[in-house]
Amino acid sequence: MKIAITGASGKTGFRIVEEATQKGYKVKQIVRNNSIVPENLRDIETTRLSLDDKEALDNALKDVDALIIATGARASIDLTGPARVDALGVYRQLQSCKRVGLKRVILVSSLCTGKLIHPLNLFGLILLWKKLGENLLKTNSFEWTIIRPGGLKETEEYTNEKIYYSKIDTQEKGSIPRRLVAKCCIESLKENTSINKTIEITSSIDNKKISFKEAMQII
After folding, report:
1. In the prediction, which pLDDT does 74 show?
2. What does the CA dihedral 61, 25, 9, 176 come to, rounded to 10 degrees?
3. Low-confidence ranges of the chain (pLDDT < 50)
4. DSSP string covering 130-153, please?
5. Contacts (Cβ under 8 Å, ≥6 apart) of 149
6. Residue 76 pLDDT
7. Is the whole-model pTM more than 0.85?
8. What is the residue extent of each domain of the chain?
9. Mind spelling out the 3-state secondary structure of 82-116?
10. What is the CATH T-level fold of the domain 2-216, as seen in this structure?
11. 73-107 pLDDT per residue, tens
């Protein structure tokens, strides 16, 4: 299987690339023109483009079997970022998928997506725009999976942390290392039982250990 990863140079994106290559997937990194790809990933196929370039995006996606969308707005004084990235950016990617016949799509979203009263919405109503992006994906046009992680941690010291998986709109707080989010994205590719599901994930050393496959049987 060959997968494309958009936002591949981001803090979660590059970890998804690493996890995918370690599992033996062929990977195409899709990044912005000015993005810096980590040195250890510079030998991997990389396409630089703007998401509003339909032809370039179509060419990038036409030879892959699945897309992982790891694009996301960053904290900025520009409050239009969430609308442009988490809604319009997702829309453009999904329209391209339709044009090239790509059905399998995994979207990295956020815990509490869709909530109006939330501190994160001080940043351009980000949770509302993320909800719109999710809804654009949740159609019969796609075999979709949405991953909603809690607060994202940079640490690679995660070996004692166990993931708590839950259904949509179940968790409202908690955090998780970005590395574990990346691992969940790759597990989603392996398990067809994750198709058409929204999966909320946080982690803690106190959680009961359960595999991704087992979790999908109860979500």
Report:
1. 82
2. 120
3. none
4. HHHHHHHHSSTT-EEEEEEE-EEE
5. 108, 110, 111, 176, 181, 184, 200, 201, 202
6. 81
7. yes
8. 2-216
9. HHHHHHHHHHHHHHHHHHHCCCEEEEECCCCCCCC
10. Rossmann fold (3.40.50)
11. 987 888 999 999 999 999 999 999 999 999 999 99
E-assigned strand segments in the chain: 2-6, 26-31, 46-48, 66-69, 104-108, 143-149, 151-153, 162-166, 175-177, 197-204
Provide CB contacts within 8 A for 115, sequence distance 6+: 121, 127
CA distance 194 to 176: 19
- How far apart CA 10 and CA 3 sit, in angstroms, is 17
- 153: closest CA among 127, 179, 130? 179
The pLDDT of residue 78 = 87
Residue type for 5, please?
I
Question: Pick from 114, 33, 98: which is nearest to 61 by CA?
Answer: 98
